[in-house]
Amino acid sequence: MSDIDARLREDVHLLGELLGNTIREQYGDDFLDKIEQIRKGAKADRRGAGDELSASLNQLQEDELLPVARAFNQFLNLANIAEQYQLIHRRDESQPAPFESRVLPELLARLQSEGHSNESLARQLGRLEIELVLTAHPTEVARRTLIQKYDAIAAQLALQDHRDLTTAEREQIRQRLQRLIAEAWHTEEIRRTRPTPVDEAKWGFAVIEHSLWHAIPNYLRKADQALHAATGLRLPLEAAPIRFASWMGGDRDGNPNVTAPVTREVLLLARWMAADLYLRDVDQLAAELSMQHASPALQAKVGDSVEPYRAVLKQLRERLRATRQWAHSALSSSTLAPAEVLQDNRDLLEPLQLCYQSLHECGMGVIADGPLLDCLRRAVTFGLFLVRLDVRQDSSRHCAAMTEITDYLGLGRYEDWDEETRISFLMKELANRRPLLPGYFKPSADTAEVLNTCKEIAAAPAASLGSYVISMAGAASDVLAVQLLLKESGVQRRCAWCHCSKPWPTWITPAR
């Protein structure tokens, strides 16, 4: 740990020095001296020695207050980057493995000692399903552009760690760090306008692109290695122990800015981003998989091609391009998806699996278990839609919509009925084959929004959606009302109990 502390001090000192250069260039030496006096005064104040800090702060001019605050805030950001890098990335064999690296091997060993078979452990790990929900808050101020610059700073610290760097290479890294710190310093840190729900969703997609897209295959590779070391078995290709959902663009509870068009836009943006990310992977794979030997199944797929893997991947690439182009066009106008657009995740997985199996059959497993395996893991985890969008609405909005509907139909006011009457009505209508509303029904704006949201849910592929979350649900009718509104909009979901095709609220989640 003392070695880490020494290297951490070196990195913090370097980043602080480069930040000082940036501040000096904009404000001059005198201003930088004031910051240094405040820093020294703060240290003395912590020791209870003197009033240096108060004196230094009292001498600041009004127009210097914000730059001073920004300077210390930026320094703390840089110090945090250095600390996170030291704790996570810079470990050698003499240092203990971090908890996250030990937990799965230790757990498997403990379960084996308690009598669990290797097959049982592999089966349970392959069936594991953990869903992490991405969300955002309107007060979130961390800008994507700054997060990206901080990631780039951490990457430069990693490059600097190489022992065989020349003096010129080290100077290159230092100059790159200087530029990144200057870019961060001259970038406004706080949004001037409140982010829209679409902005929040784009922030979530950026997290996937710059972090989770790389983290998932790395994590699953380590999980597979731990499982193999403990049991001799491998994690199945179709295993997705971690998946992601999102509330960004779907959480309309108390937020009037999240509307049906917003939900549609976010779903399309997710499809565009997914296609774009897979295109990058497939382009790389098409460049790398130049081998000629292929399995009979793969050869039959592409005919007499001398580069069968590239032939399969180029076909997939064309479909991904068509998917990306359609999603982009659909953002501005409703256009039917052509046949080339990928709709089912199997259409993405099958070409990748065919290449993977062929490489193993032909004695090239070491190639198959590289970037191709990573792409397969991503395809299983993220699918064609990146995340499953949860839709969230308060139960009172559903009740108000049902009241307007029953009042229009001359049945009385739904909100005045007791629970037994509500359930009787809802169950009867759910079993009724005719529509609840005539086509010429003109709802109020609030009811129209509830119904339009249900229509967007009906139009979206089932795999792109997660749960319909009902806030403040307190009775069975709160769930049945949503089921009826979704049925009226044409939603069909397979029943979890008998797997019939009738609509059933197995994916509707009451929430208080």
Write the layout of secondary structure elements.
Elements: H1 2-27, H2 29-46, H3 52-58, H4 65-88, H5 99-113, H6 118-127, E1 130-134, H7 144-160, H8 167-185, H9 197-231, E2 242-246, H10 260-288, H11 296-302, H12 308-330, H13 345-361, H14 365-382, E3 388-394, H15 395-408, H16 419-431, H17 445-459, E4 465-471, H18 476-488, E5 508-511
Parallel strand pairs: 1-2, 2-3, 3-4, 4-5
Helix pairs in contact: 1-2, 1-4, 1-8, 2-3, 4-7, 5-9, 7-8, 9-10, 9-14, 10-12, 10-14, 10-17, 11-12, 12-13, 13-14, 15-17, 15-18, 16-18
Give a quick summary of the entry.
The protein is mainly α and 512 residues long. 62% of the residues lie in helices and 5% in strands.
Q: How far is it from the N-terminal to the C-terminal residue, by CA?
A: 46 Å
Integer average pLDDT: 89
Total domains, how many? 3
Major sheet: arrangement of strands: 1-2-3-4-5
> What structural class should be given to the helix and strand makeup?
mainly alpha
Q: Could you name the CATH class of the largest domain?
A: Mainly Alpha
